[in-house]
Amino acid sequence: xxxxxxxxxxxxxxxxxxxxxxxxxxxxxxxxxxxxxxxxxxxxxxxxxxxxxxxxxxxxxxxxxxxxxxxxxxxxxxxxxxxxxxxxxxxxxxxxxxxxxxxxxxxxxxxxxxxxxxxxxxxxxxxxxxxxxxxxxxxxxxxxxxxxxxxxxxxxxxxxxxxxxxxxxxxxxxxxxxxxxxxxxxxxxxxxxxxxxxxxxxxxxxxxxxxxxxxxxxxxxxxxxxxxxxxxxxxxxxxxxxxxxxxx
Length: 248
What we know:
The chain has helices spanning 29-32, 55-67, 85-95, 117-130, 197-207, 237-246; strands at residues 2-8, 15-17, 21-23, 38-43, 75-79, 101-104, 135-138, 142-144, 161-164, 182-186, 210-214, 231-232. By secondary structure, the protein is α/β, with parallel strands linked by helices. The strands form 3 sheets. It has a 6-stranded mixed beta sheet, with helices on both faces. It is elongated, with a radius of gyration of 20 Å.
């Protein structure tokens, strides 16, 4: 019998729909599903709709997982909302890169029998029972949460990070850099960004804010990008965001 720890944090998978969708029981998935070869321990350090996830709640979740005796469990399932699922997945993947953890969400409350939460939870249980040693996300499919390479002694430190997505007509003067520690600027799919960003980077230097580009591309080959520095390549915004929070 495989023992699995289930951590309920709320989200749609722990919600109910009447006149709107709101939080209900964090472990209601186990009211609908049984497994002959798996036993579950359940704990809920907090419940929240994931659009309201915060640094404080992330810290509470990370501290709890850090206190778990993994020798007692085949793995951990984290029940989570879908809106910020990829952000929390990236955070946990960089904190617990070698631990068997699967994050699970649902597109609809579980009273709706078409909700993908049932299959997502089933897949998570199967993956853990088959033996994993990394952090995964189960949402329509199973995929590895990104962590480019293990961080040395990651430390969760609150930082004020401004995330900017470029768009046509972007006005960098509208961004207030007061009390901003880091600016994380995503790039267009070809690893480019508006020319006006160069002046904005100078503003960041004057204000004392660190500046980084992030792109899922492996290189920046266009002439307009050749002078850009501090580019985080081969990375999602979520992973770059998490790693900036975890490094001094």
